[in-house]
Amino acid sequence: MESVDTSGDVVKLTLEPAAGGEQSTLEADVVLVSAGRIPFTAGLGLDKIGVETDKVGRVTVNERFATNVPGVFAIGDVILGPMLAHKAEEDGVACVEFIAGKEGHVDYDMVPGVVYTHPEVASVGKTEEQVKTLGVDYRVGKFPFMANSRAKAIDDAEGIVKIVAEKETDKILGVHIMAPNAGELIHEAVLALQYGASSERESEV
């Protein structure tokens, strides 16, 4: 996006392809700008004690949440992974278990995420692109909310559910929902992944 003109009743955006090329103008009523998030590690004095960070400021840790400096650990938004409170909580529990000499574990495929737009967008597990990269044979099932009687009855049927499942076993690998209340619906999918449910079993529910 090259520029935004908000002087009139309609927002005008000047767009240019990321790979370069001819610019175009898009008119819209509303523009949602998603700038992303970055770890807030500046000013913590990490450089003074020698803690390594990556190019965007994330603290580098191993699988036990330990930094390169003995006795210094990091979790949550300052390390690699989803910047979500419930992910940070699980990191913290696992980190303390490691410090206590026990075995901790966080399965990031079980961490749901929600974008609070309308309709909401929620997901858990792997995306279709990630499954492709892993070389796993898979199937995709999609269900439009226009086919859901309740959604039609309340006149809020804009949305879709997408399930990615392993082709041979039908085990669910990822669930992605764009629909009203997707943030609540995704928790059923979390349970399905946690207990290794098949896509057929999930659709029955």
UniProtKB/TrEMBL annotation:
InterPro entries: Class-I_Pyr_Nuc-Dis_Oxidored, FAD/NAD-bd_sf, FAD/NAD-binding_dom, FAD/NAD-linked_Rdtase_dimer_sf, Pyr_nucl-diS_OxRdtase_dimer. Belongs to the class-I pyridine nucleotide-disulfide oxidoreductase family. Residues 111-200 form the Pyridine nucleotide-disulphide oxidoreductase dimerisation domain. The lineage of its organism: Eukaryota, Viridiplantae, Streptophyta, Embryophyta, Tracheophyta. One of its GO terms (cellular component) is mitochondrion. It comes from Camellia sinensis var. sinensis (China tea). It comes from the Eukaryota. Keywords: FAD, Flavoprotein, NAD, Oxidoreductase. The keyword RNA-binding does not apply. GO terms for biological process: 2-oxoglutarate metabolic process. Residues 15-92 form the FAD/NAD(P)-binding domain. This is FAD/NAD(P)-binding domain-containing protein.
